[in-house]
Amino acid sequence: MAKRARPRETALITGASSGIGESLARRFAQEGHPLVLAARNQARLEALAVRLKDEFGVAVHVEACDLAQRDAPGALAAALRRRHIAIEVLVNNAGVLQQGEFTKMLPERHQELIDVNVSALTGMLAHFLPPMRERRRGRVLNVASIASFQPVPLLATYAATKAYVLSLTESLADELKDSGVTASALCPGITATRMLTDAVQANVRLARLPDFLVGSADEVAAEGYRACMEGVVIAVPGAVNRAVTLASRATPKWLLRRIAGSLARRTG
Ligand SMILES: NC(=O)c1ccc[n+]([C@@H]2O[C@H](COP(=O)([O-])OP(=O)(O)OC[C@H]3O[C@@H](n4cnc5c(N)ncnc54)[C@H](OP(=O)(O)O)[C@@H]3O)[C@@H](O)[C@H]2O)c1
Q: Has this prediction a pTM greater than 0.90?
């Protein structure tokens, strides 16, 4: 029987040390992609690399880095150039969340949200997209959120960073049309990861979320992989989340703010 051809595009996944990023790494490995894994926690990345090499026989390279540092994307790109590793799929997944009233959060926390969710993501694109465009081959998957579609009181800065990610991805998808490079935004709803566990610790009322509202990282990753490979511009995993985003797009902005505000006050 003829052997099925396996994709060979090397994928760089940020925030691969846990949650959705770890599930995305597993999914890409399962499909035969050589990987570069990035995050701060080197030990977790190395352990995942060993498991993925063993299980799927793919090459996995680890680059520990703190993406909150302004020069991190450039340093990462330079390190991979030195190793002659060309990135054909960039998965910008690393992200941080902080909840609470805007005025009660420390300025450093707002800055960290912007540094990781906005500046690092943009820096990664600025370094890794031009070579893809030159080769006329490449894919980008930016992890946004269902919070990208509407204001979210008590998650104001986080939601604003994710609106940025969605807007940037949509613009890029059009700019890159016919270039051989695609850009996709993955917009998960609430997902069972460390981010949610940390949010529940900070706000116990979130523990009462009904199960149908909480997706699994593996399901989100499967949808992300599909969207990335098919060049889908906006992917929202899960029927409930798709319904919520459709409803929010059809609702006048003033009403959306009131509903979001009242929901936030009830769970905040
Ligand atoms: N969970 C949800 O409900 C949900 C919903 C919508 C969207 N999202 C988005 O999904 C993405 C993944 O989040 P998750 O839920 O999987 O959370 P998670 O388990 O906390 O994972 C976050 C990842 O980002 C990495 N990271 C954080 N700060 C970093 C930094 N300064 N430098 C490098 N890496 C950093 C973390 O690794 P290290 O700590 O090792 O650095 C970790 O691998 C995020 O962009 C998040 O906004 C999550």
A: yes
